[in-house]
Design brief:
By secondary structure, the protein is of the alpha/beta class. It is 33% helix and 15% strand. It has a 10-stranded mixed sheet with strand order 7-6-5-4-3-2-1-8-9-10. Helix 2 links the parallel strand 2 and strand 3. The two termini are 36 Å apart.
Length: 347
């Protein structure tokens, strides 16, 4: 079964005020936006039509804000349960109880993603006091209900030195999945961005931890596409194992197998950068995905650095980080440490 992922923000309501949150990047809103139940039903119909046309199965990553704060949250899960749609939730730990977790499981939730952005002091400084302990306490509750627990970290200069130690904490607390992605900067806060050497050193330390914990029960999701470069240099990945057919086999899913839908219906190619292509309440999702606005995110020869790299079809770094740092998604990834020489560019 081949899934198509939809990251669906049903509300902006949230208990936290995280330093790296894009909702608050331009200042707090007087009122949170949230999608009405009637509009959520329209979006579901649009998603089902898209998947019918594309021969895919929907996988919904429902988030916010914190999706559980939406007043029709349980009604939405009931509606999705009727269609047998696979659901993961991305939210906070504060409203989780054993009863809530069991109810979510009964309505089809298979995974719940929590965030840890460093060890206790750092995480609570980035998010809010008490958040670290609440997150750790939620892990056994979710697992007891039969819901997989994913832990996601957002890496920046604020916490890069703590990510390897966080691996120990995640494994010790028996999370099912661990991954990290990078903070998307703006030109005004570039100083939060790790250097290429600093970032690679962190990845190297994490890789050694991953090998150490190979049989621990925690899956280490290599979410950041620079893992492909790291593995290539380590001899763990060989692009020659794939046919020379011009197809894109891996790397950023922007424009390939993912769409984001916001609480006002806006459809983005990627939520981590300004990339609006339409509105799910007004336009057909399949037409949007196959249309010219989305095509603009699939012009791989425009990648200034990656187009000269043998890993173009498998990596491309993070275009959202590149856009935040340089102003263009096709600019070089600011954490990519690979040197593209004359020989590479002519290959």
């Amino acid at each position: 079964m081949t899934y198509f992922a939809f990251q669906w923000h049903i509300t902006e309501a949230c208990d936290q005020r995280c330093k790296h949150c894009y909702i608050y990047a331009l200042g707090s809103r007087a009122e949170f936006r949230e999608m009405s139940f009637e509009d959520m039903a329209k979006v579901i119909d649009n998603i089902k039509a898209f998947c019918s046309k594309s021969g895919r199965e929907p996988y919904l990553y429902i988030t916010g804000g914190d999706p559980i704060l939406h007043p029709r949250f349980w009604d939405l899960l009931e509606l999705l349960k009727k269609d047998g749609i696979r659901i993961a939730l991305l939210g906070n730990p504060f409203h989780l109880t054993p009863e809530v977790c069991a109810r979510m499981k009964g309505l089809g939730v298979v995974k719940y993603q929590l965030s840890l952005d460093g060890l206790k002091e750092t995480h609570d400084r980035i998010r809010q006091p008490g958040s670290y302990d609440s997150t750790m306490a939620a892990i056994p509750m979710l697992r007891a209900a039969g819901i997989d627990v994913a832990i996601m970290s957002t890496v920046s200069k604020w916490n890069v030195s703590e990510i390897p130690s966080l691996v120990d904490e995640v494994v010790g607390n028996k999370a099912d999945i661990f991954a990290f992605a990078r903070y998307c900067p703006s030109p005004a806060d570039r100083d939060t961005t790790c250097s290429p050497a600093e970032y690679r050193d962190m990845m190297d330390k994490c890789w050694k931890k991953y090998l150490q914990y190979g049989d621990c029960g925690t899956t280490f999701n290599l979410k950041d596409h620079l893992w492909t470069l790291y593995r290539y240099e380590a001899g763990d990945f060989d692009p020659d194992d794939y046919p020379d057919d011009g197809y894109v086999y891996d790397g950023c899913n922007c424009g390939n197998s993912h769409l984001t839908i916001l609480s006002d219906g806006s459809v983005y190619a990627c939520r981590r950068m300004e990339s609006k292509v339409g509105n799910a309440l007004e336009e057909d999702l399949y037409d949007l995905f196959t249309g010219p606005k989305m095509d603009a995110y699939r012009v791989y020869e425009n990648f200034e650095k990656c187009s000269g790299c043998e890993l173009l079809r498998f990596c491309r770094g993070c275009p959202a980080v590149a856009k935040g740092y340089h102003g263009s998604m096709y600019a070089p990834d600011p954490q990519c440490w690979k040197v593209i020489g004359i020989d590479d560019e002519s290959s």
